[in-house]
Amino acid sequence: MDMLRQFGQDMLGPAVFMVAATLAKIVCITLPLMLCVAYLTLLERKIIGWMQTRLGPNRVGPFGLFQPLADGLKLLLKEIVIPSGADKWVFLAAPVFSIAPALAAWAVVPFDDGVVLADINAGLLYLMAITSVGVYGVVLAGWSSNSRYAFLGGMRSAAQLISYEIAMGLSLVVVLMVSNSLNLGDIVNAQGKGLFAGMGVSFLSWNWLPLFPVFVVYMVSIVAETNRAPFDMAEGESEIIGFHLEYSGLAFSLFYVAEYASMILCSAIASILFLGGWLSPLGCFPDGFHWLAAKIFIVLVSFLWIRATFPRYRYDQVMRLGWKVFIPVCIAWMGVVGIWMMSPWSVWK
Amino acid sequence: MEFKTFVFYFLSAVLLYAAARVVTLRNPVHAALHLVLAFFSASGIWMLLQAEFLAIVLVLVYVGSVTVLFLFVVMMLDIDANRMREGFRKNMPLGLGVASLMIAEMGFVFYSRFSGHVESAARQAGPEYSNVKEIGRLLFTEYAYPFELASVVLLTGVVAAVALTLRGKQKNKSVDPSEQVFVKAGERIRILHMPPEKME
Question: Does residue A70 sit within a domain?
Fold first, then answer.
């Protein structure tokens, strides 16, 4: 590795080499992510199929393994219809606004101790700032379609995203209170210490246990943030007002790629903030990336499980849950944790 | 030219272009989008100054929430660009006066800042130095009272917003979810027993 770095610096000069190396790292993150997105759609259909005693897609390739490729090819070949009177540039830029934050946020996600693209001090803050940009995709898609249904859908989805962003932000505040850092790597390392970690059962000293109410709020908020069932207003049959009503072909599928990419992102963040990231659950196993991958997988499967289980919320119930239940819970637990940290029974010393 | 200088000039050029488009574009939604671009470029410039906390908070607050609300408003309103331009000539002198005053003020600040020492006083901090921690420490120790005052002002704003929009008890037909949850089947439907009609 050092030899490669030396060779590259000699060949390209230090500045150009740094840019090239960073670009290579970005590709190393984005390509597997896109592959995961493609196969997450297959996994979703398979798992929901099994839960409903069906087989799921099994025609294209062995066990239906080439199904995502076939779907992608089909969407690629479809025409992108731009509605008359639509604002063409904004209409085409809206899906990009949706997917760009879901990819850019991966810059600060640590995969292992020190294995991160940008190890910045304000990592958690960056994450909140970048994911808050995603709401533009929704608002602009609704507005630029020049359709009242799409516009109303865009307004609803934007209001939902902003409401749950507040609950999510408040739950993150509690996490950073106990870990005393905004750096995601430090947050994971802080979870590796504590009473239970000393006894060898370190999964009991991860944040999910002492911050359990906040953990629940965060898990439900990420389902609402990613527009997933049971909060998928945009896909409701009874209220036919989704923000992506007028989209077709690849432009439409970009919204879905963004949804699945942010599902994976939110699962990764939940694993890092509450489930100990790359730390192993028991002291006797070595830490490593495989633990993070396993945790992300578990959270993702629970996303699908929720989708197969719960009926869709009504819109006013969605807003009520966000504003009247989650935000008070977060604020109350913030006070509790603040007192707890200052008391002699603090578990974070 | 150093790479950092190039980045600075690039960001500044984008920022100036976006800011000019905000006031010259006829479509208010496009103007709001250029405002987003301007905020992003400004945040990049702050990042160059190693003020990463301010840079990220600029994106979080202004791009993530304030401009979204702008967008909500300008999308809802039917704005006629021609009517907006009516008073242009009349208000021009006042606008020019305010603009020149602002330019003069900024000039004073920059002149006093740079006339003494051209070299930036901001020390080059190592990677261990956390901007966030430093700002937090200052806010909660040295500037605790101004900080509290600012929060009181914000709280007043929140209360005022609620007071302005709350006009007495609303006469809407919204349902109470706690009552909905405990509803029994018997309260929803009534089964009637009717004797079958006799054929004669």
Answer: no
